[in-house]
Amino acid sequence: ESLTESLDELARELDRAHVFHSWSAQAQPSSLVVASGLGCRVWDHAGREYLDFSSQLVNVNIGHQHPAVVQAIREQAELLTTIAPATVNLARGEAAKRIVSHAPSGFHKVFFTNGGADANENAIRMARLHTGRDKILSTYRSYHGNTGAAVVATGDWRRIPNEFARGHVHFFGPYLYRSEFWAETPEQESERALRHLEHVILAEGPSSIAAILLETIPGTAGILTPPPGYLAGVRELADRHGILLILDEVMCGFGRTGRWFAFDGYDVRPDLITFAKGVNSGYVPVGGVLISDPIAATFDERVFPGGLTYSGHPLAMASIVAALDAMESEGIVANARDVGDTVIGPALDDLAERHAVIGEVRGVGVFWALELVADRETREPLAPSAMGRIKSALVGRGLLPFVMDNRIHVVPPCIVTADEVAEAMAIYDEVLSTALEGEG
Ligand code: PLP
């Protein structure tokens, strides 16, 4: 056995012995070792190569090991690795200025957090203090993070064992493929989902509601691109009742949809924007809240009762500056849009024509979902056992997939090339042909 193979085995042994993993039963260890990466690819110690069509947790927008970002972190580390949040620091101001430059008019301030969950946590806090109201409305099909209010705002199964925060109410957002509203067209889905939300607002008491919190495009829940008019309709309902709109751009922001913010693709303007992931592609943990002027002004004279030791950490700040500058100068957001429109979208449609197991293809930019079904007529989700086989077969053929419930999310870095997409498509194609053999 070679030295590199034994490093992979050592990594697995240490992991099994001592590492406690997220969202999982600990007796079922993962065996995938990753030791290094570059661009859209990662390798284990022995040199086994994987094409990363997950962007890890849909966060490595700029690709692995972008040299300018690595260099910026190295330079900042040599200058000043850490400093308290109350201190003025140039890297922090430069990072905030760049984030603000991509926001709509009327946004000038950024509060930095350690990640996406605490970004939502603090946006919720700001909304409650600004409005003097309590309730937060969010959708059943959503993920907002693992902490106190964020996990209870979350719509999926992860909320249920964690319901210790109060003041959260859920509603159904639009999802035409599995409509809660018997809708047959995007227009019906939009109109009826808005009517449902209006009824929830009225039933809860509009004057008790601080904010509606939405992922602009729900990500983990299925890349549920909203139908025409929906987000504008939510904005209108919020305005009518003095309710704030928080858009969670943690997964869909910073290039993922082929735009700087996903909401740039829709006719809507939020009051608070939460971000993390793509802002620096996760090279150093960071997130934050972009705050519109009236909400920022609430805290001009009044103390904001929130803070973090690592708010605006210099290594994170330097990585944001370098990542956003590289995304701008290398046209990385435009690449996500072009590759999505001209390569990924058509290739997935083509895949769906050849594989009856694909019930729906939806998405934009480098943010796509294949919804797999046992039967196209009934739309019955493909069984977990079959999804498990598909996932292992993809990894076995050297592709890191993002698999969630009965879906494959096709979410490569924003720098992905047409050749890499073609390579991935050949793997999806082969796996969908072979992994389901013998399936009823
Ligand atoms: N919001 C959305 C939309 C997310 O997708 C995630 C993470 O997947 C989060 C919030 C939480 O971010 P973090 O894991 O950085 O706390």
Automatic annotation (TrEMBL):
The cross-references to InterPro entries, in alphabetical order and at most eight, read: Aminotrans_3 (IPR005814), Aminotrans_3_PPA_site (IPR049704), PyrdxlP-dep_Trfase (IPR015424), PyrdxlP-dep_Trfase_major (IPR015421), PyrdxlP-dep_Trfase_small (IPR015422)
GO MF annotation list: pyridoxal phosphate binding; transaminase activity
Can you list the GO cellular component terms from the UniProt entry?
cytosol
**Per its UniProt entry, which superkingdom is the organism in?**
Bacteria
Record bears the keyword DNA-binding: no
Recite the UniProt keywords alphabetically.
Answer: Aminotransferase, Pyridoxal phosphate, Transferase
Q: Which Pfam families match?
A: Aminotran_3 (PF00202)
Q: Which family does it belong to?
A: Belongs to the class-III pyridoxal-phosphate-dependent aminotransferase family.
User: What's the protein name?
Assistant: Aspartate aminotransferase family protein
